[in-house]
Design goal:
2 helices
């Protein structure tokens, strides 16, 4: 099992969520987060200057079987992409074990 953590633009979240459901990744957690990025120059939008040092994003945590990893990553890369600075990051780590509290199932059965 793998844990996929993704930081994406809030504006892309609905599209990402729909795409994940289409590839049968039906469970994940998410939070609204604020981060600090590498881009420090200000931007002007409709005549108003704003700083990009504090960035509002959505943070997703997805636990998948090894077989689902590649399609999950590709789905995130394809749907979260805008081509602009600040599209986000994806981190992958090994998940040693998972348990479903209600049934006491473990491993992949615990997350499926």
């Amino acid at each position: 099992m793998k844990k996929v953590e993704a930081i994406i633009r809030k504006s892309k979240f609905d599209e990402v969520k729909k795409a994940l459901h289409q590839i049968e990744v039906n469970f994940f957690s998410y939070w609204d987060v604020t981060g600090v990025g590498n881009e420090t120059q200000g931007h002007v939008y409709r005549g108003i200057s704003y700083s990009t040092s504090d960035i509002q994003r959505r943070y997703l945590v997805i636990v998948v079987s090894d077989e689902f990893l590649e399609r999950t990553i590709n789905t995130l890369l394809d749907t979260a992409y805008t081509g602009n600075v600040g599209d986000g990051k994806i981190f992958v780590s090994d998940m040693l074990e998972a348990y479903r509290i209600r049934t006491r199932e473990s491993g992949y059965a615990g997350i499926n």
